[in-house]
Design goal:
Blueprint: H1 3-9, H2 24-35, E1 46-51, H3 54-61, H4 68-73, E2 76-83, H5 86-96, H6 99-109, H7 114-138, E3 142-146, H8 151-158, E4 163-172, H9 192-195
Antiparallel strand pairs: 1-2, 2-4, 3-4
Length: 199
C-alpha cells in the first residue's frame, strides 16, 4: 500500500481479536520507530512503556474510563509519558544536544512560564503519536489512541518517576466484527476545501 491508501484504511479500532498477538520482531520495530520520532530541537522529552503482561494491562484497563475492553483485548498497550521535571530535562539536553539546540531552548523556551514549558514538552510527545499511528498502519497493525486514562494511577502502576503519562495507544489486530472499520462504517472527514488553504 502507498501512504494515501494507508491513510484511507487506517481507523480507530473499537474491538480487538484477543487471541492474535503482535510478534516480538514487530514490537521491536515499533520501539525503534518511536525512538526515532521527531521533536523540536531533537528534545525527546518522553518515555514509552510497552505493556504485554496481562496482569499489568488489566490493572491499567481498570483506570482507563471507557477503554477497558479495548485494552484488555489488545495485544499490547503503549503508554506515552512526558518528562515532568524541567530541571531534569535541562540536564538531559545539556548532555545530549549540540550547543545550538541548547541555545535555542535557553533563548526561546526557558524564559516562558513553567506551565508553558511543560505544554511545549507535551507537544513533542504528541508529535511522536502521529508518527507511531502511521507506522502501525503501514505494518497493518491496528491501533486505538486514548486520552481517556487516569494519569496518576497509570504512573503509580508503571512506577514512573519524573515522567507523567499523557495518553495510551492500544495496538493489535481488529476483531472481524468491529463495526468501526472502514469496510463497515464509511470513513468521514471534512471536505478538502474546508481544511486546506492553498495560497
Amino acid at each position: 500500500m502507498n501512504f494515501i491508501e494507508i491513510a484511507q484504511n487506517r481507523y480507530t479500532t473499537k474491538k480487538y481479536n484477543a487471541t492474535k498477538k503482535i510478534s516480538e520482531t514487530e514490537v521491536s520495530t515499533l520501539k525503534e520507530i518511536l525512538r526515532l520520532s521527531p521533536s523540536s530541537i531533537n528534545s525527546q522529552p518522553w518515555k514509552f512503556s510497552f505493556i504485554s503482561d496481562e496482569k499489568v494491562k488489566n490493572s491499567l484497563a481498570q483506570v482507563s474510563y471507557f477503554n477497558e475492553g479495548k485494552i484488555q483485548d489488545a495485544s499490547h498497550l503503549v503508554v506515552f509519558s512526558v518528562i515532568d521535571s524541567i530541571k531534569l530535562f535541562e540536564k538531559q539536553i545539556e548532555k545530549h544536544l549540540p550547543a545550538g539546540a541548547v541555545g535555542y531552548y535557553n533563548q526561546f523556551i526557558k524564559l516562558k512560564t513553567e506551565e508553558q514549558i511543560k505544554s511545549w514538552l507535551s507537544n513533542q510527545v504528541y508529535l511522536s503519536l502521529g508518527f507511531f499511528l502511521s507506522a502501525c498502519a503501514s505494518m497493518e497493525i491496528d491501533s486505538t489512541p486514548m486520552e481517556g486514562i487516569k494519569a496518576e494511577e497509570y504512573a503509580s502502576i508503571l512506577k514512573l518517576k519524573n515522567y507523567k503519562p499523557l495518553f495510551a495507544v492500544a495496538i493489535g489486530y481488529r476483531a472481524k466484527e468491529d463495526a468501526n472499520q472502514p469496510t463497515i462504517k464509511t470513513k468521514t472527514r471534512l471536505d478538502v476545501e474546508e481544511v486546506i488553504n492553498s495560497i
